[in-house]
Amino acid sequence: MSRRPSVVIVGGGFGGLAAARALGNAPVHVVLIDRSNHHLFQPLLYQVATSVLNPGQIASPLRSILRRQQNTEVILADVTGIDKEGRRVFASNVDRGDVAIPYDYLVLATGAHHSYFGHEEFARFAPGLKTIADAVMIRNRILQAFERAEAEEDPNPNDGLLTFVLVGGGPTGVEMASAIAVLVRQTLRTEYRRIDPTTTRIVLVDSGGRVLSSFSPSLSEAAHKRLESLGVEIRSGHVDRIDEDGAWIGGDRIPSKTVIWTAGVAASPVGKWLAVETDKAGHVQVDGLLRVAGHSEVFVIGDAASYEQDGRMLPGVAQVAIQQGRHAAKTIVKSIAGAPPPPPFRYFDKGNMAVVGKGFAVLESGKFKLSGLPAWMAWAGIHIQFLAQPGLRVSVFLQWMWTFLTGQRGSRLIVNYLSSETGKSAGQS
Amino acid sequence: MSRRPSVVIVGGGFGGLAAARALGNAPVHVVLIDRSNHHLFQPLLYQVATSVLNPGQIASPLRSILRRQQNTEVILADVTGIDKEGRRVFASNVDRGDVAIPYDYLVLATGAHHSYFGHEEFARFAPGLKTIADAVMIRNRILQAFERAEAEEDPNPNDGLLTFVLVGGGPTGVEMASAIAVLVRQTLRTEYRRIDPTTTRIVLVDSGGRVLSSFSPSLSEAAHKRLESLGVEIRSGHVDRIDEDGAWIGGDRIPSKTVIWTAGVAASPVGKWLAVETDKAGHVQVDGLLRVAGHSEVFVIGDAASYEQDGRMLPGVAQVAIQQGRHAAKTIVKSIAGAPPPPPFRYFDKGNMAVVGKGFAVLESGKFKLSGLPAWMAWAGIHIQFLAQPGLRVSVFLQWMWTFLTGQRGSRLIVNYLSSETGKSAGQS
Question: A280 is in which domain, residue-wise?
Answer without folding.
Answer: 6-35+77-114+265-337
